[in-house]
Design brief:
mainly alpha, elongated
Length: about 220
């Protein structure tokens, strides 16, 4: 349940609402989504009000309702937007990477939370704690599967080029994502072991050991 590479987390500034000039289109949706991520991370879902998001975004409550409709749609819509934004930035980073090893490093960096205050991972935690209907479970399954598919593509490329061992892709992916998810929960919980050690370095070293071709190292 991955996060962003956006630097230290800090409270988002509240933008004064200008009712004469509300943003429109992609600008408005992006502003509303980013505001929602911050408010959900701070308040959780039980105390969340649409007016809180509107205040954070500098938009009217009516404008927020236009983007989200009902409150019960909010978490999934924000999560889906957040993941699409994150995956777009991951794709751009992967396009610049020279080797499968560099791509694996990027995948781990984008997957793990920065720290216990990571807003995107907090959003995942809130969403998974909710009860979802069949449609909601489909959305979550597609988002989770998206990470599996991206990891498999990186490992497949490395395996085909001879950079990685000939691992069973589905089994490796299950183990890798389970480890990354467990580490992420540790970081979000604030386990002291990660105050002195890097979860990214730990995870990457574990994956590299399993992917090292026979006879190397």
């Amino acid at each position: 349940m991955p996060t962003s590479e956006t630097g230290p987390s800090r409270p988002a500034a509240r933008v004064p609402t200008d009712r004469k000039r509300q943003p429109s289109g992609d600008e408005a949706r992006g502003r509303a989504m980013r505001a929602a991520i911050g408010v959900i991370a701070e308040k959780g879902t039980a105390a969340l009000r649409m007016s809180d998001i509107a205040e954070r975004a500098g938009m009217s409550t009516g404008h927020i309702l236009y983007h989200f409709g009902k409150k019960d749609r909010l978490l999934l819509e924000v999560l889906a937007w957040s993941q699409a934004d994150l995956w777009d930035r991951l794709r751009q980073a992967l396009d610049q990477a020279a080797t499968p090893a560099e791509k694996l490093d990027l995948f781990v960096r984008f997957y793990l939370p920065r720290d216990a205050a990571d807003e995107r991972y907090a959003l995942w935690t809130q969403v998974l704690a909710q009860r979802h209907d069949e449609a909601g479970r489909r959305v979550l399954t597609e988002l989770l599967d998206g990470w599996d598919e991206r990891l498999e593509a990186i490992v497949r490329e490395g395996r085909d080029l001879g950079h990685f061992a000939d691992v069973d892709l589905p089994e490796f992916t299950v183990r890798a994502v389970a480890m990354l998810s467990g580490l992420s929960e540790d970081v979000m919980f604030g386990r002291s072991r990660w105050q002195q050690a890097s979860p990214h370095a730990f995870a990457l070293a574990a994956l590299e050991r399993e992917l090292r071709p026979a006879g190397q190292g």
